[in-house]
Amino acid sequence: MGRTGTLCNCFIASFRTPISICRRKKPLIPRRKLNLMAASMDPLDTKTYQQNVLVMRHGDRLDNFDPTWEKTADRPWDPPLIQNGLHRAFGTGREFRTRLPFPIHRVFVSPFLRCIQTASEVVAALCSVDDDPNAKSSNDVVAIDPSRVKVSIEYGLCEMLNKTAIRIDVAPKDGIFRFDVPQLEALIPSGTVDPTVEPVYKEVAFGYLQCVFIYFPFSTT
User: Fold this and answer.
1) Over 50: is that where the pLDDT of 67 sits?
2) Is residue 210 scored above 50 in pLDDT?
3) Pfam families given for it (predicted)?
């Protein structure tokens, strides 16, 4: 037996964040409501549930600010964030924590380095025990509570891995895009990675979007 819920219009935060994405003052991602079916362990459960989902793009990538970087990079198709991009991601995580009307409990993130770094900063801000107003990045966080948020790397959130989607001058010559998942997981705040989650795509074949997919659990309405 299933139960019907609502996937609410939480794709764009209603407040201005350090990395708000707007064009002519209109959100690039429209707010929508979708019907959501969820399995219920209790056949007598007739409550209506609500699930909130937030989609966030990665921060400022280095190759957009330093075009010479890719000439000496081992992985020119997988640039990191610039320092300001890290700061903006951390600041956005802090805004999410203090101003969203619901908690964030789960994060799904693309294996691209820029996405991992963005998610890492957001999660550090969400899990910070002592919210220092002077903190600029995860390096300034003294202690975190890893039970607040759990993170999973998901290949299904990748950009399409081919020379059409990836800049052709930096794509791997052999056409193979490799990710070291254990190494990437080590960049995420300690204790927040959830090893029990079964990925949708276990191997990289293709994807659609470089992004961080943040999940908020069901709440009754």
Assistant:
1) yes
2) no
3) His_Phos_1 (PF00300)
Q: What is the DSSP string of 146-166?
A: TTS-EEEE-GGGSPP-STTTS
* Structural fold of domain 54-215: Rossmann fold (3.40.50)
pLDDT at 10 over 60: no
Q: Check: CB of residue 77 under 8 Å from CB of residue 171.
A: yes
Extents of the domains making up the chain: 54-215
**Residue in the structure block whose two tokens are 């935060």:** 13
Residue 111 vs residues 3, 153, 169, 201, 212: alpha-carbon distances, Å: 33, 6, 21, 12, 10
Predicted local confidence at residue 204, as pLDDT: 53
The predicted model scores a pTM of 0.73
Amino acid code (one letter) for 114: R
Average pLDDT of the residues in 67-81: 91
Alpha-carbon separation of residue 68 from 9, 65, 168 (angstroms): 40, 9, 16
Q: How far apart are CA 82 and CA 74, in angstroms?
A: 17
Other beta carbons within 10 angstroms of residue 117's beta carbon come to: 23
Handedness of CA 73, 74, 75, 81 (dihedral sign): negative
